[in-house]
Amino acid sequence: MVAATPPALIRDDGRWTVHFKQDDVFGKPKAFVILQLSSKNTYDTPKKAVLGQLYEACVTDRLEEYAYDATLADLSYNVQVLPRGVRLSFGGYNDRLADFASYITGKLARDLDDVLPETDEEFERYKDNVVRSLRAFDVRQPYFHASNYATQTIQPIGFVYSNTELRDAIRDVTRQDLTIYSKNLWTSGKGEALLQGNLDEKEALDF
User: Fold this and answer.
1) Rounded to the nearest 5°, which phi and psi values hold at 6?
2) How far apart are CA 14 and CA 190, in angstroms?
3) Which distant-in-sequence residues (6+ apart) come within 8 Å of 77 by Cβ?
4) For the chain, what is the largest distance between any 2 Cα atoms, rounded to a whole number of angstroms?
5) Beta bridge partners of residue 33, listed in sequence order
6) Residue 85, SS3?
């Protein structure tokens, strides 16, 4: 068996590290992209961890209509707030993927009013959903609790928080807190990217 060729480093200038692998096997008109903005400020307290959960919930819900139509065209995206930063992934037919990604990133980075709650009432609905999800921990099976506690003991500080810490933190979170958190989420960090599929190097760098 011939070993697969690893992605090539095509940019590394202190701002972005970009890896690229052109599809030379499957011949599908599709591509997959992972973009990550590495930062230690997205998840370094329990409050920021729950704000990250709220941000993900708001974005997913507020962009659902557009994302659903894109799904019918076999385009998809995902946003995750992680201990090491915030990650965006895109996949689908490469001829429209850049346009799709441009629209999504524009909403996330610039048009915050389109992805965040417009009223305190709407914010409380999102907050209640996250609170309910955290409370569901209490009725999970013992093996789930054991796995969760074991994970907390082996992860670095600031990577995983206890359910109690998260429930205490979300109690006093406000819509203003979410707005401030969201504005700062994309303002700094080291960019890393992996692009694979039916793209050439120039298209990967343009992306």
Assistant:
1) -70, 160
2) 8
3) 67, 70, 88, 89, 90, 91, 100, 101, 104
4) 59
5) 90, 195
6) strand
125: CB partners within 8 A, 6+ apart = 117
Alpha-carbon distance of 154 to 149, in angstroms, equals 9
Write down the pTM of the prediction: 0.89
- Using 50, 70 and 90 to split pLDDT, how confident is the model at 190? very high
What are the CA-CA distances from residue 95 to residues 29, 37, 125, 173, 182 (Å)? Answer: 8, 25, 37, 41, 30
pLDDT greater than 80 at residue 2 = no
Bridge partners of residue 93, in order along the sequence: 30
Nearest to 90 by CA among 33, 157, 28, 154: 33
CB-based burial label for 84 (10 Å; 0-12, 13-18, 19+) = middle
The number of residues making up the chain comes to 207
CA 60, chain centre distance (Å): 10
> In angstroms, rounded to a whole number, what is the distance separating the alpha carbons of residues 131 and 121?
15
Q: Look-up: residue for tokens 């729950």? A: 50
CA distances from 127 to 56, 147, 174 (A): 12, 26, 9
